[in-house]
UniProtKB/TrEMBL annotation:
Residues 2-62 form the HTH tetR-type domain. GO terms for molecular function: DNA binding. InterPro entries: Homeodomain-like_sf, HTH_TetR, Tet_transcr_reg_TetR-rel_C_sf. It comes from the Bacteria. Keywords: DNA-binding. It comes from BD1-7 clade bacterium. This is HTH tetR-type domain-containing protein. Residues 25-44 bind DNA. It holds the Pfam family TetR_N.
Length: 190
């Protein structure tokens, strides 16, 4: 991907974070990117192509964040995975981006497909971990955990009304899961 495309996608993310998903139009993005609409369409012919590229860009950003601390996603402990997600909502960019993407996915089929693609590996990872831990309904456990963790962005994410409670909530949540699953919760590969 060219530097110009990365710059445009960065501008698209900034629009979503600052003004909400409804503000991301091709015309607005062209304006923010200091180019004419035709020039933007040279890089991204349609809105759907832009959204697909945006999905890949977001995926790549999170893969990069993850790889800074962990070598293989599949080999980390459940605790490490949860810590990563809870720490991520402490970043203003994440706390503002994800709720917008979730809302957008409810009304935009292309965004729904993007979010499904982004979340499939997370659900699979958690499903696998809960199966290893002997849970009766691992998929339901996985979905419940994602709901809890992702919802935390709204209530205790950076910039939220209860952001000052994020660290205490993080500790409480980790302690709760550790009490439930014991030492396996902290063991890599389980």
């Amino acid at each position: 991907m060219s530097d110009k495309k990365r710059e445009i996608l960065g501008n698209a993310l900034a629009i979503i974070q600052d003004d909400g998903y409804a503000a991301l139009t091709m015309r607005h993005l062209a304006s923010v990117s200091a180019m004419k609409l035709g020039s933007l369409q040279y890089h991204f012919k349609t809105r759907e192509v832009l959204l697909e590229a945006l999905a890949e860009h977001i995926h790549d950003q999170y893969a990069s964040l993850w790889s800074q601390d962990n070598t293989a996603f599949e080999s980390v402990s459940l605790r490490t995975f949860i810590e990563f997600l809870l720490d991520d909502i402490g970043r203003v960019e994440s706390a503002r981006l994800w709720p917008q993407l979730w809302a957008w996915a409810l009304v935009e089929p292309t965004m729904k497909a993007m979010m499904d693609k982004l979340y499939q590996p997370l659900v699979a990872f958690l499903n696998h971990r809960f199966t290893q831990l002997g849970c009766d309904k691992p998929k339901e456990e996985a979905l419940a955990m994602l709901c809890l963790l992702e919802g935390a962005a709204i209530f205790v994410g950076a910039g939220s009304f209860h952001a000052d409670s994020r660290v205490a909530m993080r500790k409480n949540l980790l302690d709760t899961f550790e009490a439930r699953f014991g030492e396996d919760f902290c063991r890599a590969g389980v």
